[in-house]
């Protein structure tokens, strides 16, 4: 990395830090977090910690605080242990699914269809979203840690709008899956969606909603976004592509069950702790206090205290390793030289 400003495809110009300075901050965060059980230790790969730091403009105190909160959440929620059978009911209509194609950068693509909502349980909907994020991160290639969202508004109406779900979605993704979202495309949103979007933006960080692009099938200038990003032969016809196969729940269930088998490997492979790892019985057994005086008094000359990020920028498992923030499970291949390249299944 150069010593000047680093150009990021998602963040624009970030705070300039030399490679050794970045590593020093990563090491400091790891020191502040302390010794962790195996799975949480895997989550705290260099790639994952780096995502948390980037989301807070390399502010160690803020990154450590949010990372500790995510570690507590992962210890209690156990996103990597969610399996298809548990969320299959939520998936029946194809309201969220991982596509069988990637964009031209090799990024995992999550398709979302709000009009296909089939349940009323916010808890169930969020759990399925987390499952999809973990799976997406698990599927990311080693050189990618972000994903693309394709949101299809066909059939969408006012009854599909829920500020409660939107707020909870933004909280989970921005707090627990930082730097996981590369781009979100809203395809053919209706006019009445605009006021809702204005309200929804209040739940998102500026870096996040700047990643959101509006695309309309009858506007050639916006459709160029699709042509530049995807192979149109592989892209679904509902997004202007040539693939007319559509969503098949039976085939999708088979894919997810196969992916479920890979998840345990992601959380054990490549891990050889240098010191004995404490047994994890509950989040309460972790020394992850986020109320330290230093955190409370820390000020950031570049960020507001509200910076939370999926990406610092994500819309809605972390690393490079599944690149998932993460996706938390959502993705990531494990590289022995990084302990976990998709690192964190911290998995935006």
From TrEMBL:
SMART domains: SEC14. Pfam families: CRAL_TRIO. GO terms for molecular function: phosphatidylinositol transfer activity. CDD domains: SEC14. Residues 287-348 are annotated as: Disordered. InterPro entries: CRAL-TRIO_dom, CRAL-TRIO_dom_sf, CRAL/TRIO_N_dom_sf, PI_Transfer_CRAL-TRIO. It comes from the Eukaryota. Residues 326-348 have a biased composition (Basic and acidic residues). Residues 84-247 form the CRAL-TRIO domain. This is CRAL-TRIO domain-containing protein.
